[in-house]
Fold this sequence. Notes:
15 helices, alpha/beta, 35% helix
Amino acid sequence: MKAWLHNCAGEIPKEIGSAYDLACFxxxxxxxxxxxxxxxxxxxxxxYRVYPENGRWTVSGGETGILYGxxxxxxxxDSGQPxxxxxxxxxxxxxxxxxxxxxxxxxxxxxxxxxxxxxxxxRFAYDPERMRELGRLLASVGLNVxxxxxxNVHDPAQQLLEDWLPEAAELAAVFRPFGIRxxxxxxxxxxxRHGIPTxxxxxxxxxxxxKETAARVWKAIPDLAGFLVKADSEGRPGxxxxxxxxxxxxxxxxxxVRPFGGVVVWRCFVYNCRQxxxxxxxxxxxxxYEHYAYxxxxxxxxxxxxxxxxxxxxxxxxxxSPLLLGMKKTKLAxxxxxxxxxxxxxxxxxxxxxxxxxxxxxxxxxxxxxxAAVSNFGRDENYTGHPLAAVNLYTYGLFAWNPETDVKEAVxxxxxxxxxxxxxxxxxxxxxxLSSRRIYEKYTAPLGIGWMVTPHDxxxxxxxxxxxxxxxxxxxxxxxxxxIDRTAQGTGYLMQYPESFRxxxxxxxxxxxxxxLFYHRLPYSFRMKDGRTLIQRIYDDHFEGLQETEEMASVIxxxxxPGPDREVIDVRMDMQLxxxxxxxxxxxxxxxxxxxxxxxxxxxxxx
Length: 607
Ligand code: GCV
């Protein structure tokens, strides 16, 4: 067994066909000395209760609830906590989703852990044993929906709704005992592959086609969770082509899937990706709110709008998307990204839980009803490319279950389950993982400005790589100043937020440092709260980020990781060191060449 479940019993017998049987198997294997009393209560769904009763340990819950209760106890036992124990728990969100950006040809968009686990050469190609292992990993942290194909639906992935349905149904059956339901990304223009000249959501033939298709799909997979849609985004087809808005577009699909209990998860990642850099009016972070907020209340109740946590695109630091605060009458899901697209490609260490904690601190309870994350796993032996990147998959499950999860406890639980290290090494590793995001943030783009990455690939520095490009991600650094004014006096982005948010960020003197250049355009001589100038803060952060990476590397080398992980971790740590050095030097040189201002501490900047 791989990743964090290596203490669990070996393979799961193929005969196991239900979550109930699986729960019994897991409990009896993990606790051979305990006689369990299992009390199913369908009303409880995913919730569970573990308690002593008449001298016996009882687990009650819905079928999946019992399974989650079993895994909770196993995780606690294997990470050194006393179990069984009394516990009562229910998930915060009903859909706890993983979105795989896997293509039918076997490649994975923004994948850093090998090829697809599901597809190869334009068809399904999976190892059932590995699927069961993956199902077990996901279920063990409470995840329950797996969208197996890329939101950019490339040919022939449309076949999932057509010729591939029987095979898709077989895969759904493999995941069913783990309480995991499949979801498919769909191509909005798919009716046009069938002789219908349009994909207009109000066209009767289009509506009929989707209804018939949904009937066929749910007949094959009755518990399919739903369809995931990227429409009118980055070249994908969508309702805009026909002069329809996104509510009209989504509601048409919602009507088609409604009879089968399906949902339409409709992504809000919509912006102008053909922007002219000379256009000083358009500000990309405003886009999602402008496209969706006015439609609040117009979406069917089986549509869920899936919104990226920040207004840009998974940068190291972004404010909370204003759209997550602005649609009180619509079902919302927040989208996170486990794949380290902008955060080090699963080469650099980057533990995400501290970032999620910050996001949740800004997000009022009850605003979202589901959660999704872009997957970080692939066909690599260790699933996540970098063995330590598995901490993000693990802790995502815990946060999806309970957003109030304690970051340190969650990370520590993962470390203890994954490695049997001496206690002081365990502590060292936990410390490194907890500090890794801040370190990465220090050596990359400064103070919330984002981007500055190598275009398209998104690994390594290129401060002006996107500056004169089409994607709307400009920093406008010149010899005096850097950043974009997004207050009422600038692009007005900040006005999309409620009053309390505006107050927090509108004044550069009081705006939190780490988002300063996201919200404000400031001269290099601007005095930060601690008295340093802006330029000095930029230099300091970069030198510190590099130094802390060097310290991290020496600690990592001293930790006795087991066999295969050792080699992978060392190779990637060396790559991260190189990357951090490159970032530090290029960013410092970039700003020095522009500003002509020396580092007060006289450190080496290449002029
Ligand atoms: C799946 C960014 C990524 C794309 C991704 C897109 C999205 O633009 O670079 O690879 O496409 O986000 O979330 O749809």
